[in-house]
Amino acid sequence: MDTPGNTAARAGDSQALERLARxxxxxxxxVHLLIAWLSLQLAWGxxxxxxxxSGAMSTLAEKPLGKALLWVLVVGLAALAxxxxxEVLRHRAGLQASGDARKKAAGKVVKAVAKTVVYLFLAVTxxxxxxxxxxxxxxxxxxxxxxxxxxxxxxxxxxxxxxVVIGVGVYHVRKGLTGHFMKxxxxxxxxxxxxxxxxxxxxxxxxxxxxxxALVGGLLGWAAVxxxxxxxxxxxxxxxxxxxxxxxxxxxxxxxxxxAAFGAFCFxxxxxxxxx
Length: 276
Description:
Blueprint: H1 4-12, H2 15-44, H3 53-61, H4 66-92, H5 99-130, H6 137-149, H7 154-178, H8 192-226, H9 234-244, H10 248-271
């Protein structure tokens, strides 16, 4: 019988989709490298762009052939979202199991859904900049938070969202420290030196990204506490908060370099994709 899980398996194993997903992983890496570059400029006074996704897309749009590259990002990131959606369908059957098998399937579904949302968000952001309608990520987040504050229990919902983002940040730090990220990459064809380099990139990149996400969540939580949506200034606000801390330039530089390492790790994932 042709079940959704079987259909998802065929979709996930599609060579065409895998090639597009590789393009998406490269695109994802480029976004992180641009964010790292903007963060370094922020740290050392070499630029005034937003150190976040919108800043990265805006920077790319201003370059020669930038609009064309943005369209490549749109296609690649959308393919990544479809790839993760196939994983959701693949593991959905496991939710009918019991005990540890069910918990394991639920964890994989939650992670796949979260990644699908992230990739779709980035694809839409790239699409807006490719069509000339890009906006500041910080401004969008502040507008969203202001709208949620108008809902019954909106302040509580924003607080929950803040805890979730902080939790994701902590998860990234733990993932980097434990080396669990190596499960996302197939290094069977990699040399010993390549595997060692990939592992080092993940050990640096995941904790740095986790710290950035935890700061984003902290600002979101502060917005909920103060009932002020302007406090929810996103990744750019998190980077500027880090810069204002003692030894801020050094701390921001370290985080920026870590985010660059994460971007390079994405390139390695594109070269040695996980076989699902």
